[in-house]
Amino acid sequence: MSARTRSLTHAHPTEVSLQDALDAVGDPVRRAILRELAGTPDWTRACGTFDLPVTKATRSHHFAVLRAAGLVEQRDEGPRRLNRLRRPEFDRRFPGLLDLILAEPATDRRSSA
Question: Which InterPro entries match (predicted)?
């Protein structure tokens, strides 16, 4: 495990309040990240591969919010930071919430950023 990975803070969904979970999924960019992760196998998407209408620093902030809400787990492999949607764990804590988010039609994120 790299020093960079050790610096990541991951909340487990059981430690997250409903309000924190709702705050995390309230942003359209974060919902887009979740939808993209839901459609790919675990640990196959690096942060830089998401087509997001935000700067690199803002992208990092969005991933930090998702980690703090127990929605995403990240690990470093070489220079890439890979992601996993923590769907099983999150679904046990907040049944149905991710289903609602993932069923939402994708919109033009550029108009909401």
Answer: ArsR-like_HTH (IPR011991), HTH_ArsR_DNA-bd_dom (IPR001845), HTH_MetalResp_TranReg (IPR051081), WH-like_DNA-bd_sf (IPR036388), WH_DNA-bd_sf (IPR036390)
